[in-house]
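In keeping with the milestone schedule agreed at the kick-off meeting, the structural modelling team has produced records for the first pair of proteins. Each record is given below as a sequence line and a structure-token line. The laboratory manager (R.T.) confirmed that both were archived under the project's standard naming scheme.
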Amino acid sequence: MSNELDGIIQVDTDELKGMVNDSASPILIDVREIDEYEESHIPGVPLIPMQTIPAHLEKLDKSKSYVFICRSGARSQNVALYLKNNGFNDVRNYYGGMLSWDGDRQDGLEWMVENTQELYR
């Protein structure tokens, strides 16, 4: 069940599992470093490393919903707060991060977003 931290909805593992293959769900974005993502990530979830988020800010659609994922939930919380402070209304954090994820995993660099328009396939 979702709760809230600093005005950001916290998504738990069961909720995230329901979102992974649902095209109507929020856009899921992994914000870890490339090497962390390559080691293990949720299949189909794109990577936008945290430090590159400001460069993507103007390209992200403020009318869309987003859930951010990192290793423990701290970096993704900071990204959600940053976007919220920049006019994004529907941003969420995966509480517990990949340390809590017990679903399917994939290794390798599956999908690193260089052009955020790639998110809208």
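The second protein of the pair:
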Amino acid sequence: MRQSAKRWVHGDLHPANVVVADGILAGVVDFGALFAGDPAWDLAAAWMLLPAGGAPRFFNSYAQADESAIRRARGPAA
């Protein structure tokens, strides 16, 4: 599998680190785990934070969400 170039990632996206307003992601907080790494770490949050079927919309909006990164994200999500 191809490793992506390192990017700044939140690294700790989970329900306690996001702000939701009216069912829509409105913000991200707690950047204490911010690091340069594989965007797959942040992409993994799609399966942990969003309702069923919401991941594709998240991936379409995330700049580094190519097919390879989405495949790599399955590991951290598990």
